Amino acid sequence: MIITNNLTKQFGDFTAVDNLSLSVKEGEILCLLGANGAGKSTTINMLLGFLKPTSGAATINGLDVVKNELKTKEFITYIPENLMLYPTLTAIENLDYFSGIAGKKLSTETLIGFLREAGLQEDAFQKRISTFSKGMRQKVGIALALAKDTKVLLLDEPTSGLDPKASNEFGELLQKLKNKGVAVLMATHDLFRAKEVATHIGIMKNGKLRQQFVAEDISLPQLEKAYLDTMNHLEVMS
Amino acid sequence: MILKTFFKESKELLRDGRVRAAFAIVIILLGIAVWISARQYQNTNEQYLVAEAAEREVWDNQGEKNPHSASHYGTYAFKPKYPLSLMDQGVDKYMGASIFLESHKRNEAQFSAAADQTGLARFGDLTPDFILLFIIPLLIILLGYNSFTKEREMGTLTLLKSQGVRPWKWAVGKWLSLFFPIFMVTAILFLIAGILLSNLQDFGVFKWGSLLAMFIVYVGYYIIFINIILFISAKVEKSGIALVLSLSVWILACLAAPKAASNLAETKHPFPTRQEFAANISKDKQEGLNGHNPWSKESKLLEQKVLAEHGVDSIHQLPFNFDGYRMQKGEEHEAEIYFKHYNYLKEQYAQQSDVYKGLAVISPYLPTRFLSMAIAQTDYGTHWDFSDAAEEYRIATQKFLNDDFAQNSTYGDWSYQADSDFWKKLPQFEYEPPQLGSIIRSNASSIWILGVWIVLSFSIFLLTTKTI
Amino acid sequence: MFRYNFIYELKLLLRSRWIQLLSILLLLLFGFSTINGKSKVVKREVDISVAKQEVEETDKAMLKLLDSVEQGLEVSVPSWTIPSSPMAVGNYHPRVAAMDPQPMAFISTGQADLFTHYIKPTVSGDDFALNFTEMTSPVQLLFGSFDLAFVIVYLLPLLIIAFTYNVLSSEKEQGSLRLLASQPISLRKWVFQKLMLRFFWLSLLVTLSLVVVILVAGVQPLQWSGILILLGLALCYMLFWFALAFLVNIFVDSSAKNAVSLIMLWVVFVLLMPSVLNQVGNTLYPIPSRTLMINEMREHKAEATKRQDEILDNFLRDHPEYAINDSTQSRNFYHRYMASQKVVKEELKPIVDAYETQLQKQQSWAQKLQWISPTIVVQESLSQLAGTSTADYGNYRKQVMAFAGQWRAYLTTFLYNNTPFSQKDYLSLPQFNYQAAKSNSVFTSMLVLLLIAILLIGFGFAVQGKTQQKGILSN
User: Fold this and answer.
1) Are B230 and B464 in contact (CB under 8 A)?
2) B–A contact (≥3 CB pairs within 8 Å)?
3) CB-based contact B247 C131, cutoff 8 Å
């Protein structure tokens, strides 16, 4: 469960995130759409404690992300835009290491189970990550979310650079996690994938959440029109 | 193209805060080093002048005395500091600056500064040569290690290649942009040193020619480093690796190789210990003529020979004091023994030098070091030259004293005393250090090695840039 | 987190071949430097034993001569070298005053290349003329020796720098940092653990390779305590560099900048600080001029030689025991000479003392300054451990001077009593035994190094680093 309350981040005079209030409940996928610099990544960085909010607050599972930074990270799995792992370690070893330092001691069999569940092909388990494509690395990331029994999944442009098949597979994985009751916040430019996977869609501009839809209530063309309208809208009129 | 690259690179360097800081630090260090060295130089030379005058006064005012007693009382030869020691102190710290000149014995220079200092002194001093030899190559590394790798990392390399750039022109531009600031720093330092030195006219003879020669040696040294660093940067993929490799070269050339060379040289061609050396000499001395021992076999032989030459049958009939004559002959014989043993030291050192030259293959530092010291007249060779001159003076002094003894007294008259004015007739000790021309001739091999390094490293660098 | 870091750090180090590379490098460096050190020690031992053997042989000849003289036989050597004369013994049969190498002498050349390790003081000549410096090519002194101390003090920090400069920054550059930072761990702790693990592995490699090298080179049994101290010092010094690496890792960001910063620190600590401190010491407490000292001594000596006869009379007035014991009352050259030597020595004492005190001041100042730079501390401690530090040679010099006095006093008693030296006196000739100074400042040094390292690490934890601010985590 992710809740932000009037979350604001300023860099000098520039306001990157402006009084943002949103919530993502268990089993929901919120896709944040918006141009570069709209404040999507900044929001995620604040949820992760990488950036301290200028004002406002955010909670993960009811815990404040500033006051309980380490505790909240136990619930979170974060998959950055270009997920990189240790190139000289194998998929299992990477998964073991990251879940290990997060405090989960798991047997190799269990880890293999998670990799399988994340859809990584069997022959890749023992291969070094240096040979992996982005899609394969993301599957390891999802396996990490499974291993950590994660409550919150934060995704930053997960589908950029993926081929359509890999992107589709990724969408299916998200559905699985959603069904497990994970709250997912995903920042993306990909309107099509957002419409496919999201339960809720928000459009951000200049750090503000301009529009919010329930995904079922809107068709893809409508979404695209709404997006373009928001982008073209003059600041004074909003 | 060459100029464009040069200006672009120079601009990049100039805009980098770290580069500016590094330059500032090097220049401040150089300033301090030159200032301190100049002060020490002046101090030492003032002391030298005082000591030399005082010693001469002591000698001149001995009063009435037997010449041979005076020869035992002896005198000192002091080694002055030469102007360019301001730039390179060389081995001065490890050599004594005063030689005691007495009869029967050739002494070594005494009281090296290093022996009076703590272990701290063995780390090295903050002198211009330290900065010229160690720190500026380091500066070259900091400025140049990413010259090519950054183009790869930022991705500008592909863009540049697509422009149809001639690689060698591009490389020469980069080379110039690295060479220019280093050249300027060095040139300014040498110019300041030159102006400083030409204003200290009381001491020694400063020659711009020698300073220029030294400057050229250092510029050559830096050219080699620039070539190596840029070669590494062009060959390697990542900046980090280029930096580590360049530093390894620096450590190997400037720190490890000289030390390893010194160990090898010592194991292969060791010097005798001081005690061994003294023992060998006294063994040789025992076998020959001793001026103080009229009963030895050699003395008797000499006696017979001299008597025969003069056609008399008693040494009392000789026109001179035979004691004095024998003293002089003994002196000459001992001088030969010393000559032989000191020559052995020189030979050992010559062979050690060959070891150093051999290792110059992996270290351009070594020939530079030797050339710089030689031009500054602070190397071992100059010290030998001084010590030989002092020995020559010692022999001449002994002859002067013994001749007086032999001419002005009769055999067996040990109570003879020379006038108190007599001592002033002894000529002063004058020493002229070797001139630039002869220094260059005797260090020709180092110059060749340095030249080969420059040519080889530059061609290898240019060849690799073809394949970037 | 520790368990996982422990397992995977080893895996990563093995797979990136760091462990293998370091092992080879360490073995090579330690091996070469130990061989160098050992060969120097062996040469020193051989030189001393040759000198001692020579004395033994001439002693045999001397005893034979004494035997002949005592039996009233004619001997065929110059009269002034017949050993029944105490001055002949004192001048032609000096003892070897040797400074035997300490068990750990091979680790640091220290001042060993500068000073001589045995000396044969005679009764004539003054102590001042004893030359304690060794005949070494000055070029060799200038370049120094590739010994274990050099490897530890100069090269080991560079290996550490190469091994640690990018612990955090490489995560950023290869892109795994953001994933790592999203885990419920403190990055500072994580960096700290990684570095301590690397410290652990490097320590292990250093210890192993050093022990292997020393075993191959051959150790004397009681040397192990020395080796433990050597290891202790090396590890404390390494910890200091790891602490610096920790700070640089958390305060600076990119790998290249880290490397440059650490190299700068190395240059400052290893190259600049010692030479600057040395220069400051020389400027504040200049080494008094030996040249001027020579001048002064010459003047005093000239005075004394003029008054030799007068001096002898005074001397005998001060030492009536000689006048009473001696029935013959015959006085020759040596009586006058030894008496005037004594006076000259006493007259020169103030000059020599003044010089020595000023030198002492300069040296003790340098000694105090060493604490500013861990590098100097370690170099000094290693030299102390090896028994080759300036203090050790000062100590040796003092002992030799004392011995020279003893030697002279023992034989001049014979001289002034006008009693001949005989075979039975041979056994009571003074012998020199070098007593190495015990110093426990090595432990102080280790403590200080540890303290500095802990302070640096504490500073790293106490002060907000860049990792905590923007920059490293958000683009």
Assistant:
1) no
2) no
3) no
Report the amino acid identity of residue B168.
Answer: W
Residue C134, min C-alpha distance to chain B (Å) = 6
Backbone angles phi, psi at C120, to 5 degrees: -120, 90
Instruction: Give the pLDDT of residue A236.
Output: 41
**pLDDT at C222 (0 to 100):** 59
Whether A70 and chain C come into contact, CB under 8 Å, resolves to yes
Cβ contact C200:C9 at 8 Å? no
Work out the pLDDT band at C474, boundaries 50, 70, 90: very low
| Short-list C267, C232, C238, CA closest to C164 | C238
Q: How large a percentage of chain C has pLDDT more than 70?
A: 89
B41 burial type by CB count under 10 A (0-12 exposed, 13-18 middle, 19+ buried): buried
- Determine whether the interchain pair A87/C179 forms a contact, defined as Cβ–Cβ distance below 8 Å: no
End-to-end CA distance of chain A: 29
For residue B176, the tally of other CB atoms under 10 A from its CB is 18
Distance from CA of C184 to the nearest CA of B (A): 30
CA distance A119 to A59: 31
Maximum pairwise Cα distance, chain A: 58
Max Cα separation, chain B? 105
Q: Which amino acid is at B351?
A: Q
How many whole angstroms separate alpha carbon C242 and alpha carbon C248?
10
Strands laid side by side in the A208-214 sheet: A76-79, A152-156, A183-188, A29-33, A200-205, A208-214
Q: Pairing mode, if any, of strands B105-106 and B98-102?
A: antiparallel
User: B146, B229 in Cβ contact below 8 A?
Assistant: no
Average pLDDT of A173-187?
A: 91
- In whole angstroms, give the CA distance from residue C1 to residue A96: 11
Whether C185 sits inside 8 A of A70 (CB atoms) is yes
Q: How many CB atoms lie within 10 A of CB B301?
A: 11
Name the pTM for this structure. Answer: 0.87
Question: With the C-alpha atoms ordered C62, C64, C70, C74, is the resulting torsion angle positive or negative?
Answer: negative
CA pair distance C465, B297, nearest whole angstrom: 88
Instruction: Count CB-CB contacts under 10 A for residue C435.
Output: 8
Q: Which domain holds residue B323?
A: 2-466
Is pLDDT of A36 > 50?
A: yes
Within 161-200 of C, beta carbons closer than 8 Å to B belong to 162, 165-166
Mean pLDDT of B344-351: 90
Distance CA A114, CA A140 (A): 9
Question: What's the token pair of residue B329?
Answer: 């002959």
Cβ atoms within 10 A of the Cβ of B285, count? 17
Closest chain C C-alpha to B286 CA, distance in angstroms: 11
Residue B86 scores a pLDDT above 70: yes
Comparing alpha-carbon positions, the chain C residue that sits nearest to B97 is C291
Q: Considering its fold, how many domains does chain B have in total?
A: 1
A207: left (phi over 0), alpha (psi -120 to 50) or beta: left
| Chains C and A contact (Cβ–Cβ under 8 Å for 3 or more pairs) | yes
Q: Are strands A29-33 and A183-188 parallel, antiparallel or unpaired?
A: parallel
Q: Is the pLDDT of residue C181 over 70?
A: yes
Please name the residues in contact with C221: beta carbons below 8 A apart, sequence gap of 6 or more: none
Contact of B60 with B414, CB cutoff 8 Å: no
Distance separating alpha carbons of residues C87 and B386, to the nearest angstrom: 36
Domains of chain A, first to last: 2-84+151-237 (3.40.50.300)
pLDDT at B291: 63
Tens digit of each residue's pLDDT (9 = 90 or more) over C337-383: 777 777 777 777 887 888 888 878 877 877 787 788 889 889 989 99
Encode pLDDT of B281-319 as tens digits.
888 877 776 666 666 777 777 777 777 777 777 777 777
Residue B3 to residue B7: CA distance in whole angstroms: 6
Distance CA C166, CA C254 (A): 8
